[in-house]
Write a structure and sequence with these properties.
The structure is a homodimer. Chain A has ten helices and eight strands. In chain A, the strands form two sheets. Chain A has a four-stranded parallel sheet, with helices on both faces. In chain A, strands 6-5-7-8 form a four-stranded parallel sheet, with helices on both faces. The longest helix of chain A has 17 residues, at about 190-210. Chain A has helices spanning about 35-50, 70-75, 85-95, 110-115, 125-135, 150-155, 155-160, 175-190, 190-210, 240-250, and strands spanning about 25-30, 60-65, 100, 125, 145, 165-170, 215, 235. Chain A is of the alpha/beta class. The interface of A and B includes residues 32, 42, 47, 49 and 70 of A.
C-alpha cells in the first residue's frame, strides 16, 4: 500500500552547524495523535536540555489537535481523510512562526509529502532520527524489528523513507492485531500497565522467531512504556530520538534533515 | 509589595453550563515558566480526560516561552520586566484562537491585570481553582499554609485574589530562602529528588510551628514533586486544580470564573 506521491528522500547526516548556534530556534509540534504520546514527547524534549534556569530551555509551540480524524482508519479502511485537519493544524502552527516543525505520530507521516508541499519551514520526518540512530550501531541490511500501527506497516512508512538501508521485520498478523494494535489502543486510553505485557509478547516473537536484536518503537504511544520493556534487545524509540533530534536542532547543533 | 493596578476579583463558583456542552473548547496555555512544570501541567490536563480514543481529548494550544524574563527577579529586585514578553507570547497564542487561556505559573500572575486588559477571551486565574477547592472542605478564615516563590508571597498574589477568605500562613524567612526557594530552583534544573526533602522540611515548619492542616502548593514547579510529599496534611496543588478546572471548562462543565 503506497501513497503514490511519496518518495524516499535521502537521509542527511546531521553535522554541527556552528553558524546557527547563536540563536535558539522555536520548535513547532503538530501533536495530539494521541495527546498522552504528545505530552510524553514534550517531556523527552525538555529533558534533553540540561539547564538550571528557564531561559536556557528551548521554546516550543504545540498544537495538540486530537480531533484530527483517525489516521489508521483512513489508511486501512478508507475512513475520513485526516489531511484537511492536519493541514489546518499545521497552518495554525505556522501562524505562530516556529523555526521548524515536527509531528510525534508515525502513522500521520503517510501524509508527509502533502504536508510539506509549499511549507516555508523545515519539517523533520520522524523516520530520519531513527535511521540516524540505527546508522550509529547497525550495519546496513541488518534485520530491524518494527513495532508500529498496522497502518504504518501497511503504508510502508519506514521502508519508503529509509530506502533499502535495513531489512524491516514485522510481527505476523496475529501478533500485530492481538498484541501490537491492542497495546497501542490501550495506551491511547491511558492503560499503559495493561499494554506492557502485550508489547513484551510481540517483542518475544520478533526476538525468538525472527531473531532480531534491534527493535524500533515506530509508534509514539509506545514511548510511554519504553522504559518497562525488555532490556536484552536494543530499543530505538522513535519519539525519544525525535525529541533528542529536535532539541539539538533548536539549540543549533544539527542542520535540517529535510 | 503590590502591583497597584491589581484588585481582588470576586470568585464565581463554577456551575454546570449545559448550553456549551455540545462543543469542546480549545485550551490556550501560556507556558514555559518553567518548561518542566508546563509539561507536568499538560500531563495533568490530559489525564483528567477519560477517553479511549484521541478524538475525545481536549485540544490544546501551548506557547512554551521559557525566554520570558525571570518573574521573581522583576518583582523582588527590579529586574527586567517580563510583561512585554508575556504580552507577546499571549498575542501569539491569541493568533491561534483558543477559546480561553491559562498560565501555569503563579508568580507571573503578578501581571494578570495587564495581561487581561483588552483580552477578548477568558483568562482563568490560577488562584481561582485553588480557592474553589479550599471552599469545598475548609471553613472561611481557616489558616492555610502557602508554599510559593518568595516573589508570589511578597506580591501577595494569593491574598489579593482570594480577599479575606483564608488566613494565609507562610514560612519564616530562613525556611523560605533555604528550603522553598532553593527547592523551586532545583526543580527548574530537573533535580526533583533533591528538592523533595527541602519541601518536606518547609511543610514540617508549617505543620509543627504554624499548626496548619492544609497546604497550598502555590508554585507550579512543586506539582512535579506533589506525589512524594507528606500525606498527613491536605495538599492543594495549584497546577493540579488548574488542570482539572481547564479540562472541565473545555468540556463544557464550567463557566468562566473571570
Amino acid at each position: 500500500m503506497r501513497n503514490t506521491e511519496r518518495s524516499a528522500r535521502p537521509i542527511v547526516d546531521p553535522i554541527l552547524n556552528s553558524t546557527s548556534a547563536a540563536r535558539i530556534k522555536t520548535i513547532g509540534v503538530l501533536g495530539g495523535m494521541g495527546p498522552l504520546a504528545t505530552v510524553c514527547f514534550l517531556q523527552r524534549v525538555v529533558e534533553q536540555i540540561k539547564a538550571d534556569r528557564d531561559q536556557d530551555y528551548v521554546p516550543i509551540i504545540l498544537n495538540c489537535a486530537p480531533q484530527i480524524p483517525d489516521r489508521s482508519a483512513a489508511i486501512l479502511r478508507k475512513g475520513k481523510s485526516p489531511l484537511p485537519e492536519l493541514k489546518r493544524a499545521l497552518a495554525q502552527l505556522e501562524a505562530v512562526s516556529p523555526d521548524f516543525v515536527c509531528m510525534p505520530c508515525n502513522t500521520a507521516h503517510f501524509w508527509y509529502a502533502e504536508l510539506t508541499e509549499g511549507l516555508a519551514i523545515p519539517f523533520v520526518h520522524i523516520v530520519d532520527p531513527v535511521i540516524h540512530k540505527l546508522n550509529i550501531f547497525a550495519k546496513s541490511q541488518t534485520c530491524v524489528g518494527l513495532l508500529a500501527t498496522n497502518a504504518t506497516i501497511k503504508a510502508e512508512i519506514y521502508q519508503q523513507r529509509a530506502g533499502k538501508s535495513y531489512e524491516w521485520t514485522i510481527p505476523d498478523d496475529i501478533t500485530q492485531y492481538s498484541f501490537v494494535d491492542s497495546a497501542i489502543g490501550l495506551i491511547k486510553g491511558g492503560r499503559q500497565s495493561d499494554a506492557i505485557p502485550l508489547i513484551r509478547q510481540a517483542m518475544r516473537y520478533l526476538v525468538d522467531v525472527k531473531h532480531v536484536r534491534i527493535i524500533v518503537l515506530g509508534c509514539t504511544e509506545l514511548s510511554l512504556i519504553a522504559d518497562w520493556l525488555d532490556p536484552e534487545v536494543i530499543i530505538v524509540d522513535s519519539a525519544g530520538v525525535l525529541a533528542r533530534w529536535v532539541a539539538d536542532y533548536a539549540l543549533g547543533a544539527r542542520i535540517d534533515s529535510q
